[in-house]
Specification:
By secondary structure, the protein is an alpha/beta fold. Helix content is 16%, strand content 23%. The chain has a single domain, classed as Ribonuclease Z/Hydroxyacylglutathione hydrolase-like (Metallo-beta-lactamase, Chain A, 4-Layer Sandwich), CATH 3.60.15. A hairpin with a 5-residue loop joins strand 2 and strand 3.
Length: 298
């Protein structure tokens, strides 16, 4: 049994280049000087035949078209068995509307994330005769695809931007932001595309993993402020930064994780430039910066 992870989209919401952004990275991507990246999504399989997609990116049609493992095997037959959502962010749920074409699959999420979907009538386009909505409790083990089991757990984060009120808690722990523990063939992988803080219980949970795919949104907390693009820090957006004393590089420094992969990079993150000093620092610390099309075999 070979445990496979296929990076469908490595970027955070907006992708690279982002349509309205003239930052250094976006301009380089438009000119072809650095690789463009689509929005956050990963596919997993325990046998190479039955696949689960984690987070339905707005770019999912393009992502599936360029991933042969996900191509139709018949007129209306696909190796896609399920889709799992880790939060209700637009860049993780909008792709469900592309998957409305009377195709059978199971949609997994927590009760709160399912409620976000149910509250928006546009998602009624997912015909219940084909798409089964399965509500998963935290720390409940379930089969995500053949030979592939999963368990959801709370990680610190916040509600989606469109559900924010006057006061926003960015280290909320519950069903709105979850990580995924995937298991197959004795291998253990964690997928955590959004996380605001590394708490001791989360540290203990992922220590010893065969692979962790982790939130790589920003290099530094004030990255977007310095770039003149936003007044929001990474913490305000519910994301840990890579660098700094409270960053993910430091948080993982004493962990025994065989493969460490950053996913969900914002368009401003300098690690998206292949020759940047920041990317060299990340790689020197034993990390891989994900890119569209990257296949990981565990």
């Amino acid at each position: 049994m070979t445990f496979r992870a296929q990076i469908l989209g490595a970027a955070a919401g907006g992708g690279l280049p982002q349509w309205n952004c003239g930052c250094e990275n976006c301009n380089l991507a438009r000119s072809g000087a650095i690789p463009a990246q689509t929005q956050s999504s990963v596919a997993f399989s325990a046998n190479g035949k039955d696949w689960a997609i984690l987070n339905a990116s707005p770019d999912i049609r393009e992502q599936m078209a360029r991933t042969p493992a996900l191509h139709p095997t018949g007129r209306r037959e696909l190796p896609l068995r399920s889709v799992l959502l880790t939060n209700g962010d637009i860049d993780h749920v909008a792709g469900l509307l592309t998957l409305r074409e009377q195709q059978k699959f199971e949609l997994f999420a927590t009760g709160e994330i399912h409620q976000v979907i149910a509250d928006n009538p546009i998602f009624a386009a997912l015909n219940p005769a084909f798409v089964t909505r399965s509500q998963i409790s935290l720390d409940q083990e379930f089969e995500l695809a053949k030979g592939l089991t999963a368990k959801l757990f709370a990680v610190p984060g916040k509600v989606p931007l469109y559900l924010e009120g006057d006061s926003v808690q960015t280290d909320l722990e519950g069903e709105q932001t979850v990580g995924v523990h995937l298991s197959a063939g004795g291998k253990n992988v964690f997928y955590i595309p959004g996380c605001s803080t590394m708490h001791t219980d989360l540290h203990a949970r992922i220590d010893g993993a065969d692979m962790v795919l982790f939130d790589g949104t920003l290099w530094r907390d004030d990255e977007m402020v310095i770039a003149g693009l936003s007044q929001k820090t990474g913490q305000r957006m519910g994301h840990m930064s890579m660098s700094g004393p409270d960053g993910s590089l430091e948080a993982f420094a004493d962990m025994d994780v065989k493969q460490k992969v950053f996913v969900h990079m914002n368009n401003t993150n300098p690690v998206l430039r292949p020759t940047s000093e920041e990317k060299k620092q990340v790689e020197a610390a034993g990390w891989t910066v994900a890119c569209d099309g990257l296949e990981l075999v565990i």
